[in-house]
Amino acid sequence: MSELTDASAMCVGPEEMSDRRKTAAFLTVLTALVMEVGDSTIVNTALPAIRDGLMASPVAMQWIVAGYLLTLGSLLLLGGRLGDAFGYSRVFVVGTTGFVLASLFCGLAQTPGQLIAARMVQGAAGAVMAPQTMAVVQVLYTPLERVTKLAYFGVIVGLAAILGPIIGGLLIEWNLFGLGWRLIFLINLPIGLGAILVGLFVLPKRDPSASLRIDPAGALIFASGFGGLLYALITGAETGWSVWLLGLFAVCVAMIIGGWFRAGARRGRGEPAIIEPALFNIGTFRWGVLAAFSFASASIGFLLILSVSLQQGLGLSPFETALVHIPFSAGVMVGIGLLVPRLLPRIGKTLPLLGGAAMIVGTFLATRAIMNGDDGGIVLLSCLALAGVGMGTMSGPLGPIVLAEVNRANAGTASATLRTAQQIGGALGIAIIGAVYFAATGEEAAARLAGLGPAGLAIAAAVALSLLSVSRLPSDIFGQDKPPLRKASD
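Above: the chain sequence. Below: its structure as tokens.
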């Protein structure tokens, strides 16, 4: 830690940083975000090769994906609080180092159990790394500057989502050095090491006035609660809901509610807490997080039924399915990268309202086109492009909106709260929308197409809930006509 401390001391605070150093710091955290997102999308493509190479069972294959999501979602709050307490730069470097080491262990795994364990460690390291990426942007830039910077996040993440499956397929096809599927994890080593080395010298230093105290008991309560909740949602979506899973779900919800009130009491006494309840007194934060929660349910649920219906309903290959996704992902990038930076500061919440409406129309028409046998024609691709633009203009503003009035001292906690809401919302979308979709009896192609109708209505309902939350936002989101930013504790 002494080397890390010395390197961190070489950094300067955001007020003293040159534009060039700010750009280098931004690109460093952006690289780490791409590594995290790319790793999630690449692994889906590699599952058949992993199954053959490790003789993995269907359950093991599911947990190679789900294990990562479980630890990521359950530990995000702790990761955000660690950044607030010990400095975003330092915690970012530690988390990225853990992510790189876990990627190495994934690439060296010899059994399905070893790979699942390494993926869970990777998710835990990602939970430490991920909140710092948005927190660093929060520290470096003003609310309006963040709109453009976070738009770059969306464009690059969308590009990573498009290229991830393709790159994964190419790496496995090339089989460099005979490593096969292991390359999809080992490729993180040079990328992550580069981010670590650059980050040591360009990221902003820790605020010396920040508290170094955290709440270990609160971290355990929320990690257990969210971990159990995600486990119940993931397992319920895979195997069906049993009495035991319903009981676990109820207990975990009670734990989270209890942890919430405990955190409020501790903050009232001036003691540290793993979550900051006072953040929800800020309207833009409260309604933005709720909108992100509902929207994640809709978007993840839609991507699930889109992939399954194209492959099992219409018989497309995984590569052909990835190609059909391109107009959708391109639409997301257009919405986030072009429309959001230009229009959000001008028309405020009207933009995500229009985006949500476009997504409802686009997803509804796309599901109808697939039900009618369209496996990649101009009608389906146009509907997916419309849905993508809607998703981009709806989801792109949510990050800047959530952080618009948050005190910089709580940037890590605020970012982690947003990411946790998105993780839980996405798992809930898989559980509910997936259950509605698979309710159609039978395993034949007709059943996979019949489920699109009710699933489409469930997606529209989730987007509508998100739109309701956005409608409660102030018209002047970024406070151009308001007094200076207030603290979360105000």
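DSSP finds 18 helices and no strands in the chain.
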